[in-house]
Each structure stands twice: as structure tokens, then as C-alpha cells.
Amino acid sequence: MVNTVEIVEDVIPMEYLDMIKYTAMNSEAWHMKYPQNHPDKHLKMDIIDGDARQPLLAGMAMGLLIMIYKKCNLFRPEITYAGISIKDKNRLDNPHTDHVNDLGHIKIFGLLNSDWGSMDGGLFLHGDEAIPMKPGNFVIFDPRITHSASEITCDKQRLGLDFTVPVNPQGRFAYHSEID
Hints:
The structure is a single chain. This protein has helices spanning 14-25, 55-71; strands spanning 5-8, 31-34, 42-49, 51-52, 81-87, 105-111, 124-126, 129-131, 138-141, 147-149, 158-166. The protein has 180 residues and is α+β, with helices and mostly antiparallel strands. The chain has a single domain (5-166), classed as q2cbj1_9rhob like domain (Jelly Rolls, Sandwich), CATH 2.60.120. The longest helix has 17 residues, at 55-71. The protein is globular.
């Protein structure tokens, strides 16, 4: 697996982000299950976990994933998991890895806050990289590399949408052993 991050810019109209955020904020499906094996939980909503858990949001998420896919082909446009998390200045994020033993998947992450600015904090940290999160941009990354959000410095709640998707076997995120 290549140690890199791909930023896909200007994927989605801000109005579409606002619609997803509004729909999510008015849902009663929020839970505090994550991060697993960590005492400091944050609000999360599972949209797709094998199947659609929140049908309306699942449809919106699939539409968004197709917009990302049209800009790059680093993954197959199939959602294994999609969820929305809420983080704020009252909780520091925990650096973590995902899918350690699953080389066939990558993650995609972006903000649902159309009004998020550089002064609000919440950079995406991936390995040694610190990536400002601009509304409309999505980050495609190797989840087996330690990642987290930097400190949020404003009073807003940051809503993030993450996808787990199958890697494109011909893309640069594909795992190739030394034997290949």
C-alpha cells in the first residue's frame, strides 16, 4: 500500500452538503459506540453498514460517492460502510487506524459543514501529513496509517462523512506485495 493521501477537490455543491447535514442533524439514529476499545466516545451515525441503515441518507451518500468517483477512479463505487460523526472542541480526537487486516479497502472522508473555515481547526492528520479540510473536498486515504482530526478551535460542531470502499485493483492505492 502506498503511503499517500489523495485530495479530490470541489466534488459537491455546498447546497448538497447542507442538505445532507440538515437531514443528519434531524435524525434520531445517533449513537456513542465509537471509537471501539476507547473510553472517550463521540456521536456517530451509521448510514450504510453492509446495507442501508438510514435509507434517505444512504441515497444521498451514494450520490456523493458517484460525484467523487467521477473525479478519480482510485476505488470501486461500492459502499461497504458510510457514517457521519460529530466532533467539537470539547473532545480531542484519538489517533487510530482502521481495517488493519483488510488490504482491499480504503477510506474517503469529507466535511458536511459548508461554512467550515481554516480558522476552525479540525485538520485531517494522516501519518506525517496535516491536511486542511475545505468544504466540498474529500480525502482518499489508506486507513491502516494512523489518522485523526486535529483540535477543533471554534464553537461549531464538525460533521464528517466517511466511506469505506473497495480499492480499485489498478489504482495507486492497490496493495502489491513484493512477490507480485
